Amino acid sequence: MSNDTETGYRYTACGLDNVYLVGLPVVEDRAGDETITIPCVNQLHALLRSEVANKSTGLDPKEIRFLRTELGMTQAQLAKLVHKDAQTVGRWERGDTAVDGASETLLRAMTLEALDPEQKHPFSIRDLTVRAVQSLEHHDYRIDASKPGEYRALAA
Questions:
Q1: Under 8 Å between Cβ of 38 and 44
Q2: Could you give the C-alpha distances from 71 to 46, 48, 77, in angstroms and in order?
Q3: In what order do the strands lie in the sheet with 152-153?
Q4: Both ends of the chain: CA-CA distance in Å?
Q5: For 66-78, what is each residue's pLDDT tens digit?
Q6: Which CATH class for the 56-133 domain?
């Protein structure tokens, strides 16, 4: 398949260019063409939200957009919560300007809270603030997809 790499199936439908599903089975459809099916997409996206929100470096523009859309927010809604205007959020998501640390920390905290409001997360707001530092480091998200419905993050 054209979207298959040595590191796994590159899953770009989530809006991120750096997500690889490792071990995802390729099946043959009725016409004899190779195809993939991604089972339990909601579970996969929950894992991705957690991985992105907990990453150890600053969020890139696509990750900001991913978290915002996964939270079901428009740019204007996020802007209101972080006391910015919608154009500012748009600039973050296009990479025109860097997101400020306080706004990034709030986005991460809202994401983690939405994943499981009752769960105590391993990172405090202070920890998330330290992680909100911009970095030139590229971060791939490698997900073990070999067992449908039992996604887990692989070490980077």
A1: yes
A2: 11, 12, 10
A3: 4-5, 8-10, 19-22, 141-144, 152-153
A4: 24
A5: 999 999 999 999 9
A6: mainly alpha
